[in-house]
Backbone:
């Protein structure tokens, strides 16, 4: 498949991100920041490796994020004070150029496998599409139709909101793509699936294998 999809990945300032995960890794606020970064790094590493993905752009105003992503081939842009998630995503998508093919991927998918993302992109076939999270209410991936604006509707009930904009559900059989990590229980579920190296080093038993 030609790699033509450009993905935007949103990330809050690290001190404020993933608040429901606070304490999931013992060791205080430094460890919490490490965990948020590990989730992001494992997600974008898998995304970069997926067939069909041309580029990944993280939208984040935290200066530690470009440092952590140095050498990964992932770009970072500061959202410059935009007021929220959907505004940050729309900003990133416009930078990527919406006359091409753009999408949004959540930043907390440590069990994502490149083949899962590639399969969801292929299933969409260039049409507007979304992947529901494992509960079926949220969204882990939104794909604009080719040549269309992203029009993100993330937030509570985003799966229904995206379906309401004409997006078709894709990737329903891809557990790693659907396993976003908001709580300690989600982190445990991701570890059961097998997480990437950075998250595994922080939270999972050393015997755990990482996704391929
Ligand atoms: N760049 C950017 N990213 C955002 C913003 N708001 C949320 N995000 C990111 O969007 C994703 C989904 O947001 P949430 O579900 O609220 O996640 P979170 O805020 O990190 O976690 P909680 O504090 O537990 O709600 C996460 O990766 C966030 O870091 C924003 O204003 N700007
Ligand atoms: C913002 C969303 O995700 P989360 O589950 O991380 O709140 C969403 O699913 O639209």
Residues:
């Amino acid at each position: 498949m030609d790699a033509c999809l450009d993905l935007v990945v949103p990330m809050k300032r690290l001190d404020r991100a993933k608040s429901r995960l606070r304490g999931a890794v013992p060791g205080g606020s430094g460890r919490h920041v490490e965990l948020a970064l590990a989730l992001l790094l494992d997600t974008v590493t898998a995304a970069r490796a997926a067939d069909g993905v041309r580029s990944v752009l993280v939208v984040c105003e935290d200066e530690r994020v470009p440092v952590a992503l140095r050498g990964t081939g992932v770009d970072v842009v500061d959202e410059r004070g935009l007021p929220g998630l959907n505004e940050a995503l729309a900003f990133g998508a416009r930078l990527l150029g919406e006359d091409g093919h753009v999408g949004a991927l959540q930043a907390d998918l440590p069990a994502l496998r490149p083949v899962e993302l590639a399969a969801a992109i292929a299933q969409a076939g260039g049409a507007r599409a979304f992947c529901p999270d494992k509960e079926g209410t949220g969204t882990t991936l939104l794909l604009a139709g080719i040549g269309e604006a992203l029009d993100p509707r993330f937030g509570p009930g985003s799966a229904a909101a995206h379906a309401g904009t004409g997006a078709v559900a894709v990737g329903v059989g891809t557990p790693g793509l659907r396993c976003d990590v908001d709580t300690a229980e989600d982190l445990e579920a991701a570890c059961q699936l097998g997480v990437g190296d950075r998250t595994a080093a922080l939270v999972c038993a050393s015997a755990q294998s990482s996704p391929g």
Q: What stands out?
A: The longest strand covers residues 53-59. The radius of gyration is 16 Å. The domain at 5-201 is CATH 3.90.550.10 (Spore Coat Polysaccharide Biosynthesis Protein SpsA; Chain A).
